[in-house]
Amino acid sequence: MSYENIRLEKGMYSAKGGFTAALEALDPSENYKGTALEGLDAYQRQLKRFDIRVGGPGSDKVEKFFSTSESAALFPEYVSRAVRQGMEDANILPKIVATVTDIDALDYRTITSIPSEDDKELKMVAEGAIIPETSIKTKENLVRLKKMGRMLVASYEAIRFQRIDLFTVTLKQIGAQIARSQVQHAIATILLGDGNENPAEIVDTKEEGVLTYSDLLDFWGKFDPYELNAILATPEVLRTILAMEEFRDSVAGLSFHATGKLVTPLGAELVKIPSFAADVLIGLDKNCALELVRAGGIVTEYDKLIDRQLERAAITCTFGFSKIFDDASKVIVLERA
């Protein structure tokens, strides 16, 4: 089937997998191998069909989307992709999330394993003896997903003559705001738990309100058998770490000045969180500490965008977080309230 023969309509957004999935079912990308359109997905081919350029110096004006009723159906997907790109550019979740689970519900019951110190060791098993067990079970309480987003308010007349790439900048900022909010919820889950009475273990420093290299070593040692490979903190706390004599050698300083890459104390990646509480520092094993649960991706209310020409458009995503192994994340308390 040629992509030019596809009839576009807003009902395609309700298909499983979204608008692009519906297009791919009608116009598979594998049919274009060896052609000039190879490498484009079904949505991008529709942009070429209607000669809509969404980026670069020659990008079209927003009104190009609304030149026909069919091309107007492409606009909500453009909005979703621009917002998603903004989320990816500003997103640090891949640095702290072990896995992502997509579901079709608003509640989610995940699994957990709480091994004792004895369970964490692999032991010799004699012939005919019972092999030690590790129990995995569902958590007692559900992980409740949250819906988050922004309302985009503008008249068609206000944006019709704007270049699409300029409008993309605004949409990417909305995506960045959503990503920052997701990080805040991830941090809250680590600190307070996911509703299953599993807050992070608090580790005090030797001297209240003072963080030393010795404190970091003790903190690192408490993660066995997990690995401390990510530290989340504000710029103020990171400055304290980087100012320690142990991290001020010439090689580390040269790397920071030349590349902007921070020193990795004890092998842990430093993750700067500007909106983070200044009196705590989070350490975690990013490979087994946190699960991101999503109910779909970025959702754009297409009825408003197509029928009412962008008077009000809701851009939302639904997500939640669950702790996988409770003791794979811990907190240093620098100052108690």
Tell me about this structure:
The protein has helices at 18-26, 42-49, 69-72, 75-90, 156-159, 164-192, 213-221, 235-242, 250-259, 302-307; strands at 99-102, 107-108, 111-112, 137-138, 143-144, 146-153, 201-204, 230-233, 269-272, 280-284, 290-294, 299-300, 312-323, 329-333. With 337 residues, the protein is α+β, with helices and mostly antiparallel strands. It has a domain at 3-87 and 145-186 and 299-317. The strands form four sheets. Strands 1, 6, 11, 12 and 13 form a five-stranded mixed beta sheet that branches. The radius of gyration is 25 Å and the shape is globular.
**Main beta sheet, described?**
5 strands, mixed
Q: Give the termini distance in whole angstroms.
A: 66 Å
Estimated helix fraction: 25-40%
Counting DSSP H or I runs of 4 or more residues, the number of helices is 10
